[in-house]
Fold this sequence. Notes:
By secondary structure, the chain is mostly helical. The protein contains eleven helices and no strands.
Amino acid sequence: ENTDGEFSKGVSRAWENTKATTKAAIGAMGAEDFLMAADFNQREAQKYAPKVGRFTDIGSFSDAGNWLAGTAGESVVDIGTILAGGGVGGVAARGAAKMLGSIALKRATRAGTIGGLVASSYPQQFGENIQAVRAEHGGALPEGSVPTMALTAVAQTALDTLPVMGVLGRLGLADKARGDILQKTLTSPTRVRQIGRDLGSLALKEGATEATQEAMKLGALEWIDSNKDHFGVEQMKQLVDSFAAGTVGGAMMGAPVAGLNALHSDKPWFKQEEAMKAEAIKRFEDSGDAEQFAVDKEAIKSFVNQQLALPAPSLVADAAGNVGSIEA
């Protein structure tokens, strides 16, 4: 029996599952050896089985603690993989486009970030779907199941990019702001309330995302084999479990952003900044003028930099975590 802590087991379990789904995605394209390798990694993941694997199995406070620790461990790997993919994609595109001018550079960076997110998320979604089909059909892939699950993974991946883009857009941290977060975010009721709102918002969004992705997978399984009931009581529990696990991941992903927002929520200029953001969004929605939108965002950054009494070239506005939220 594995005696590691639940959080540690969650990290190890998620890492083995990540390798399994990546290999399954490759194997589904005809490389059968990768399917065998994916099965091996899934067996390895079972060595780190949790004491309480599902939210719907919780029956005591002890169970809740074990489930939360294990789910948090899994979320570290799941979120880290996607965030890393988006960050690497954005940096790579930014480096390739640095001679194109500021607006083109921002567009290239955003496109690279999205590309990185897709590159890291899609294989996981597709591979997980493939393994679900194989689990129901004795390791086989029925005719038509691969394209069905490939298309399903496209929609699932699109959902993944929404909350992650919001987080990545807010984490251009300057050293000063990074150091201030832990010191200052819990020093006033206003900041605590701001943290609660931000964490709750992203946790619910990510929970809904995970549940929707699970429902998409079940719908695809139903399409492949309608003779099996994929929306019975057990599957409804799966949706609840996915939502609960998603809220944990969302809260973890949103913690840095919540801290950054809270750091500035009680500043006298915070409401003015929020009003400027709202005006910029409305102007963009009305006109669709991306270049003007980029100019508006730079103006907001400049305003925040002035309020922070920092040199205008610095991008501490990104560290404040506010400007990133108006990305189109």
